[in-house]
Batch of 4 targets.
Target 1
Amino acid sequence: MTTTGRRALLVAGAAAGAAALAGCGSPSDGGTPPSAAEQEARREAERVARAEAELRRRAVTSAHGLLERYDATLAAHPALAPRLTPLRRSVAAHATALGEGGTTATPAPDSAKASAAPSAASSTTPPATATTPAGPAPAPVPAEPRAALKELAAAARAAADEHTTALLTAPPEYARLLASVAAAGAAHAYLLTEGARA
């Protein structure tokens, strides 16, 4: 190919690229405005994104509420630490996993007080980074350890039920995570009550 041919090819390529880019401008730049279908698709995508963000926020709120309940129970009954610490660590991991990919929740002001659990629980699991806005204060922990475990099991069961309900509207990947966390919560509820008798 001659030098003139190469130049002509480069000029033609540059002109074609410039022409293609000219059609990509916004309506104020003289480009074509998005069609009604494109606008509707954009609105639908925004609605879905908002719904998923709200779903994640609720799931993280539920998980952090359960985590605070574990911390309060550990603070009230340090003797239960060997039994509760592994379960609490699992709940903390679930809360973190549920919040990945989009929650913008802020730390609760009372969560620092609630996480003043025995050093066995707090030193092995760092506090979760995405916590939820302050809600109602957790109910006081029963003074009797068996009653405290029963109440913690009920909280684990309630959180598992919330995650199961959220499956109906969750996107597929997040639904699988919610199902896994719900199953773990049901197992925790069993271990906190029935599993102790076995």
Target 2
Amino acid sequence: MNSDSDLQIAGDILAVQHLLEPAREHPATVAEFAGLARSIAADRGQWAHLVEYDAVSRWYHRLRTVPQAPGPARAGQPQTPVGYEIWLLSWVPGQGSGPHGHGRSSGVMTVLDGRLTERTERGGRVLEAGAQRVFAPGYAHEVVNDSLEPAVSLHVYYPGLTEMPMHSPQCAIPAVQDPVPA
């Protein structure tokens, strides 16, 4: 019993439905987008049968598009409709994205199978299956499969990805000899 408060709840609080917030149909916070990615990752039936590997060109598949989901409310403004998309990508050994950004989109990258290396101007990090990276607009990185096994990743972009500016080779993110494990 907490002696700092004399408030006690008697009975089943879940029985008082009018006090509960309704469940959101779509995620609206970073934590909810990361949770959405984790739930898709856990349900292999949603994505495993779709994966293809292509040694000649990068393979990707748009798993879901939600063109108008409620966006987070800003001070003094109501919620604004903003879409999001979910992409499935495969990576054969040696394939990489090249250094790039994501325009005005934030994102959550989740490694579903295998191992990927993410490189930024601050260094590199190895991402094992289950690892997630969350990034804000303006974030630049390169993702590479440095392993000898194929890998699969899931990418959630909010708002939906409208541009992916590539960085020139002169601005390339340096390779790291010993990436830090995630």
Target 3
Amino acid sequence: MTKVDRRILKTQEALKKAVIELMSEKKFDDITIQELSDRANVSRGTIYLHYLDKYDLLDKLIETHINELREMCKAAADMDFIDGSLIWTEYFDQNYTFFAMMLTSKGAPYFRNRFLDFLVEEFQDEVDITKGINEGLNKDVVVRFVASAYVGVVEYWFTNDRPFPHHVLAEQLGTLLERICN
């Protein structure tokens, strides 16, 4: 694996931070490349060296977080839902600004759909419709229900400025997943 120059990483991190900060102030569509370059203290040309446009920057930022969550899923594969949810909610808490921006009115509208699609993919192997309370139900419906509920609860947690600690969120989500998926 090739090592990325630290200056490139520093520039990319500055741009990602700048877009999140600007999104806390205005809608994404209203953010200009000039504002991004000013906030990140880089030239407009530097932005175009790394990204096609502001949408590409946002897409890469979203993809970074989705990939992190995907890796956490792999690491948590042998855990129960409560412990697995704790890993996620810690990550949500540590990246509060990003997820709050993405899941509130100033966020990018397509993030929620990307997050939902990712969860649908992850819950495919978790839902059992051969026995228990889900026996005989359509798997796609159950998976979509679980994923939508998960997104809704996480969205509620961010929209209401973390009304309880992330470990409580993890316990609640994990308990509900245990009931529905097993």
Target 4
Amino acid sequence: MPSHPQEPDRAASDPVGPVPEGAVRPPRGDLPQPGPPTRPEAANGEPGPDAADPAPTEDEYTTAIQELEDRWRRALADLDNLRKRHARELERERAVERSRTAAAFLPVLDNLELALTHAGADPGAIVEGIRAVRDQAVNVLELLGYPRHAETGVAFDPAQHEVVGVVQDPDAPPGTVVEVLRPGYGDGERQLRPAAVTVAKRE
């Protein structure tokens, strides 16, 4: 008779034995058992990037605030020291500039005193001496950056001239300076004063 292969005995291979219909078969010992979920860790055993960092404590917040306050106070102190140092340097520069300007006029005063000493001499020589002292003072102002303006026959410029009178002059074009009553000194932002002038009247 032909022989048929025999099926393996499931009961012999399964130590648990037959399971009644409708019941849940218990897990076998040779299969991995599910366990509690674990947090992802790096290869060296350190917590992974998804691991939550511990929250800062109240003492850590207080320490951080104190450090910021200390840095703020030091910054304010440095700023105040810088302001005081700048004020001292500015005052020193002003004093140096005043001293330089006053020293530049000392020769002018010396020449005026010399002219007064010779007041009893020839009147013509006194006039020439005073004119020379005037020219010296004008030169000092020009060296300091304040040139003299006393030109006539030029067009009226409101930035350099101050009108104190208007005259009828047939020989002068309208709107030109006819006479300078008081010279001006300086230009633009470095102007000490404008020239006081009379201007020809427009027809």
